[in-house]
Amino acid sequence: MAGLSENVKIAFEEGRLLDVVRAAKYRRSPEDRLLLGISLFKLGREGEALDVLGKVADQAEGLIKSFYYLALIYNQKEDVLQAKAYLQKYLAFHPEDDEARDLLEQQEVPDLLMKEPSIELAKIYAQQGHYEQALDIYALVDRITGLDDTAMAEAGNAQNLFIMKTLHGWLERLKK
């Protein structure tokens, strides 16, 4: 069964929209249903696309609650950065949730960490994929004490990874 889903993705990427429509009728995964809805829309079958995409949207809205519970789990594990990231994702869809907003405000990185920025803290942020925060810390350290060649190279790597991550996000959005 997993192969069928992969075939649906390949057919979609190759522009074989009728193949997507035929194959996705037998699959019910959210991703297959999304590709089906997009294919129907591109084929000019807006009514059918509305029906399929409406169901996908309803299902997605229900699944977004997982971001909130992931944030709660990371909060219990005292992983402030992950908890904050998941809360931000959740709040993008549910900005009216005061409980989540209050929890996000509690997730602020303690000021103690930022009073003495260090290369080690920047490395930790970069290793966790939080490149923008790492770059902010590298910049602070550079202003305060300057960066040696090794730290400058690490900052350059973090900047390159940040750019790649940003471009990857843009490409993913363009695919949809």
Description:
There is one protein chain. It is built from eleven helices and no strands. The protein is an all-alpha fold. It folds into three domains: 2-63; 65-106, no CATH class; 111-175, no CATH class. Helix 1 (2-13) runs antiparallel to helix 2 (17-24) and helix 1 runs parallel beside helix 3. The longest helix is centred in the last third of the chain and has 27 residues, at 149-175. The two termini are 24 Å apart.
Give a topology summary.
Elements: H1 2-13, H2 17-24, H3 30-42, H4 46-63, H5 65-76, H6 80-93, H7 98-106, H8 111-115, H9 119-127, H10 131-144, H11 149-175
Helix pairs in contact: 1-2, 1-3, 2-3, 3-4, 5-6, 6-7, 9-10, 9-11, 10-11
